[in-house]
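Subject: sequence -> structure tokens, single chain

Hey, anyone have a minute? Need the predicted structure for the following. Not urgent.
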Amino acid sequence: MKVYDVLQLAHRMELQGMEFYNEQREKVKLPVLKELFSFLSEMERGHAEYLKKQMQNVKEGKKLSELPRDAGEDRYHAIMAKQKVVSTALDSDLGDYSIMRMAYLIEKDFAEFYDKSADGSEGEIRILFQTLAEWEKGHAAIMKEEMGKILARNAIDIGFYPF
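Reply:
Had a minute. Here:
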């Protein structure tokens, strides 16, 4: 697959991720998750815009633009720091857990896609895909942490953890 094609697919994936977070933000019950999904939607939008610019650069035979800094972890910790843990109904938490699980799998899939794309690339394209993989792994870690909080808050021990 040509670099441009991989960038185009990645761009579409990021846009779909953004749409997913926007849609699911309306479904989750916990305010912290609504804010988290807004934040993740913004992150995916930023990734999509960056990839679109790189597609243009590749098409024009230009050098790739410098990767922007991913402030995701800093912003995530700021969101979490201002939240209060509230007791919610188990049904609400389990509904939110299911949505978080879908989000986790999406982020994990994105990271794997970028890792595989990096393996088949070299130079600045390889660095681009490696960096995007790390960003997506960071998003997956956020989901995993939030799922763990839901399980812990409800003292749920399912005997295994599917993440």
